[in-house]
Amino acid sequence: MDFDAVFSALPKKEAKFDPCFAFSIHKCGSTMMNRMIGEVCEQQDIPSVSVPDVMFSEGIPAAQWMNAPELLPVFEKRMLYYGFRFLPPVLCTTGFPLTERRFVLLVRDPRDALVSEYFSYGTKSGSHALPKKNAEAFIAARESKKERPIDDYVLGASRQLKNKLLAYRDSLNFDLGLLRRYEDIFFDKETFLGEIFDHFGIEVPAGVIAQVAQKHDIRPEKEDETRHIRKGTPGDHAEKLAPETIAQLNDIFREVGAFYGYAL
C-alpha cells in the first residue's frame, strides 16, 4: 500500500533524544493525552508525529497499516511518536528495538473503558469522529453493526480490549515505561503532562505544560451522550451495567487488570 502521506507528514528534522512512544487504548483518555502531547510538541517545535492520526485523516483503516513492514522506517527516526490506541503488530517485528524504547502507557479501568466505548461505537449515532477522506466506509461499517443493549455490547467487546492490554503487557519493557491510569490523572492533568516529557528527557517550560493541561481539563457538568467527552468521571460502569455483567467483567479482566493496578 502507498504510505506517502505518512512519510510526507514526518518532521523535516530529527530530535536529540532517542525515539520514544506514547501509548494508550481507545476510551482510556487517549484523545486527551494525544492532543496535549501534540500541542506541546507544536508549541515547542519538538519533532513528533501521530501515525494513527495521519492514517485516520487519510481514511485508511487500521487493518490496512498496522502490519505493514514498509512503515518500519517511519518508526526508526529520532522523534516522539504518539496517537496509539493499540500496539501495532508492525512494532513487534523481529529486529525492531521496541523493548529498547522509552514509552508512556495510559490505561483505564477496563469496565469504564467498555462503557465509554459503547457510547462511541455501540450505537448507530455514536459520538466517534469521522475522517475527512473515505468517511463513507467508516459510516457504513458503523451502521452495519447491530445495536445491542449495553450489557451485551461490553461483554462482546471485552475480548478485544483484553487482547490490547495483553499485547502491551507482553511486548513492552516496563523498566523503560511510565505507566499511568486514567483514574489517577483525571483531576491532575498538569502533573501527568509534565511527567510525560520528563520521562522522555525533553525539556518543556512549566508554563507551557500548565497552559496546555488547563485547556484540556474538561469535566462535563452533566452527562451528554452526543459528545466525545460524555461524562469522564471514573466509576461510571457501576451506574450503567448490571451487577452480573460487572461480575463477569471482573472475571475476564482480573489477571491482566492486576498487572495494571486494578483489583477486580
Structure description:
With 264 residues, this protein is of the alpha/beta class. The protein has a single domain, classed as Rossmann fold. Helices cover 44% and strands 8% of the residues. The chain has helices at residues 4-9, 30-44, 51-57, 110-121, 135-143, 150-171, 182-185, 189-199, 206-215, 237-240, 243-259; strands at residues 20-23, 48-49, 80-84, 102-107, 177-181. The protein has a five-stranded parallel beta sheet. Helix 4 crosses helix 6, helix 6 packs parallel to helix 11 (243-259) and helix 8 crosses helix 9. The radius of gyration is 18 Å and the shape is globular.
Write the layout of secondary structure elements.
Blueprint: H1 4-9, E1 20-23, H2 30-44, E2 48-49, H3 51-57, E3 80-84, E4 102-107, H4 110-121, H5 135-143, H6 150-171, E5 177-181, H7 182-185, H8 189-199, H9 206-215, H10 237-240, H11 243-259
Parallel strand pairs: 1-3, 1-4, 2-3, 4-5
Record keyword descriptors for this entry.
264 residues, 5 strands, alpha/beta, single chain, Rossmann fold, globular
Order of helices and strands: HEHEHEEHHHEHHHHH
Uncertain stretches: none
Number of domains: 1
Question: Which fold name is given in CATH as the topology?
Answer: Rossmann fold
Please state roughly what percent of the residues sit in beta strands, choosing from under 5%, 5-15%, 15-25%, 25-35%, 35-45% or over 45%: 5-15%
Q: Quick one: how many beta strands?
A: 5
Span between N and C termini? 42 Å
Largest sheet: 5 strands, parallel
CATH architecture level-2 label: 3-Layer(aba) Sandwich
Strand order of the largest sheet: 2-3-1-4-5
